[in-house]
Amino acid sequence: MVGSLMAAWPVQGQTGWRKGPWTPEEDKLLIEYVNLHGEGRWSSVSRCAGLNRSGKSCRLRWVNYLRPGLKRGQITPQEEGIIIELHAIWGNKWSTIARYLPGRTDNEIKNYWRTHFKKKERTRKASEKRKSQTLKPKPLVQPQLQPQPKDEPLLHTQELISGSRNEPNNKIAPSTNNIEEQNLMAMIMASSSSSS
DNA sequence: AACTTCTACAACCGCAACAAA
DNA sequence: GTTTGTTGCGGTTGTAGAAGT
């Protein structure tokens, strides 16, 4: 199965775009294009740069892998703490969370969370199972990881993260509208400045 | 050594929001 | 005001390599 899939990859989709892993040549073309023309206009990248890739694919490759300033490697315990805190506030707003972790992408954080959350979930369920065999079942009090309402006041100024990123697509930081959140932001600011 | 399971990561898909025509 | 194209986001899947049995 794996072998046959690999043999078939990379393939061309029904739209004619190439799919699958990027080659160093493609990376080079994309980097050259973005260096010359800047980010954005992804739909024209494929044509102009001679890449047989969809704009979506080009953007994703750039944002998650090629963009300068990306940190590679392990998420530090400090970053993990920030992710946990921010996830408690915003839920699965990965791109929002990523704005507070310079050099980290939403995809990276999402992957990290899924891996680790799944692991924790599994161990939690396993221990519950063990408990339930010996104890009377009682209502489970879960830590609240509720996302904010969809219309949360996300649109604010970017002062919060000023200096942390300089990409043009660095949009807006969520507003800090309670003490807890403000404390968290202070913690993040302190940790990011100390780590740099 | 062979096999299985787990983890990390890259990439794709579908959808929604937004802007331009 | 409507349609169409583009961009960005979140969810999901697939693969490689590491770790465990």
From TrEMBL:
<keyword id="KW-0677">Repeat</keyword>
<feature type="compositionally biased region" description="Low complexity">
    <location>
        <begin position="134"/>
        <end position="148"/>
    </location>
</feature>
<protein>
    <submittedName>
        <fullName>Fgenesh protein 125</fullName>
    </submittedName>
</protein>
<keyword id="KW-0238">DNA-binding</keyword>
<keyword id="KW-0805">Transcription regulation</keyword>
<feature type="region of interest" description="Disordered">
    <location>
        <begin position="119"/>
        <end position="151"/>
    </location>
</feature>
<dbReference type="InterPro" id="IPR017930">
    <property type="entry name" value="Myb_dom"/>
</dbReference>
<keyword id="KW-0804">Transcription</keyword>
<dbReference type="InterPro" id="IPR001005">
    <property type="entry name" value="SANT/Myb"/>
</dbReference>
<dbReference type="InterPro" id="IPR009057">
    <property type="entry name" value="Homeodomain-like_sf"/>
</dbReference>
<dbReference type="GO" id="GO:0005634">
    <property type="term" value="C:nucleus"/>
</dbReference>
<keyword id="KW-0539">Nucleus</keyword>
<feature type="domain" description="HTH myb-type">
    <location>
        <begin position="18"/>
        <end position="70"/>
    </location>
</feature>
<feature type="domain" description="HTH myb-type">
    <location>
        <begin position="71"/>
        <end position="121"/>
    </location>
</feature>
<dbReference type="InterPro" id="IPR044676">
    <property type="entry name" value="EOBI/EOBII-like_plant"/>
</dbReference>
<dbReference type="GO" id="GO:0003700">
    <property type="term" value="F:DNA-binding transcription factor activity"/>
</dbReference>
<dbReference type="GO" id="GO:0043565">
    <property type="term" value="F:sequence-specific DNA binding"/>
</dbReference>
<dbReference type="Pfam" id="PF00249">
    <property type="entry name" value="Myb_DNA-binding"/>
</dbReference>
<feature type="domain" description="Myb-like">
    <location>
        <begin position="67"/>
        <end position="117"/>
    </location>
</feature>
<feature type="domain" description="Myb-like">
    <location>
        <begin position="14"/>
        <end position="66"/>
    </location>
</feature>
